[in-house]
């Protein structure tokens, strides 16, 4: 996981295979308090979160698990 200023975090999600998968992850992570945007790259599994505050890996992981996937 990498964190950049101002509060951009990138994680890798495993198990996504289609556009519906990316939409599910984007929706769940987008509901985390303070999240401004979520970019998902299906090919690499990279999920980049831009937020108003530092978002912990545990918060992102909880949202990803809720969507039915896991972090690498």
TrEMBL record:
Domain spans labelled HMA: 7-72
Keyword Iron-sulfur tagged: no
Domain of life: Bacteria
Pfam assignment, any one: HMA
Keywords of the record: Metal-binding
Gene3D superfamilies: 3.30.70.100
UniProt xrefs under CDD domains: HMA
The keyword tRNA-binding appears for this protein: no
InterPro entries per the UniProt record, alphabetical: Cu-bd, Heavy-metal-associated_CS, HMA_dom, HMA_dom_sf
Protein name according to UniProt: Heavy-metal-associated domain-containing protein
Protein species of origin: Pseudonocardia lutea
């Amino acid at each position: 996981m990498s964190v950049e200023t101002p509060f951009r975090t990138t994680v890798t999600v495993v198990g996504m295979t289609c556009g519906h998968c990316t939409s599910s992850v984007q929706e769940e992570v987008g509901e985390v308090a303070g999240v401004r945007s979520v970019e998902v790259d299906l090919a690499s599994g990279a999920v980049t979160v831009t937020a108003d505050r530092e978002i912990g890996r545990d918060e992102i992981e909880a949202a990803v698990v809720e969507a039915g996937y896991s972090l690498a």
